[in-house]
Amino acid sequence: MAHFAKLDSNNLVETVIVISNDDILDNGSENEAKGVDICKNVDHNPLGNWKQTSYNGNFRGNYAGIGFTYMENVATLGVASTDVFIEQQPYPSWSISSTEAKWVSPLGDEPAISQENLVAGHHYEWDEDAYQSDNTQGWNLIIP
Predict the structure, then answer these.
(1) 3-state secondary structure of 128
(2) 12 and 72 within one domain
């Protein structure tokens, strides 16, 4: 099955629909343009903006979830420029990873948590205000 995401005027995913792979074949290969034409017809909107997405994340970084952003000319996935679907940016200081279509903190991955803290229900959360006041801080251990 082929999956297509409808984008709003801000390139946010509004909906995702499924089309039979057979319906978008052109000389034995999937043709995104054929799928887009089908989507526009189903949507009754010839001006709609549709992009194919991969359920398995095989292209465009991630499967396009509702609320995801479609971005073009992004330096990620190990290439200088690509187009991706990505979740909303969680914090202003976070940037897109150069190797994955995901947001990363300026301090790197969340710190490792001990088994003792994990069992106690502790976890790390990002504190944007702490990072903005001291760019060596950001991950806070939350103790409920």
Answers:
(1) helix
(2) yes
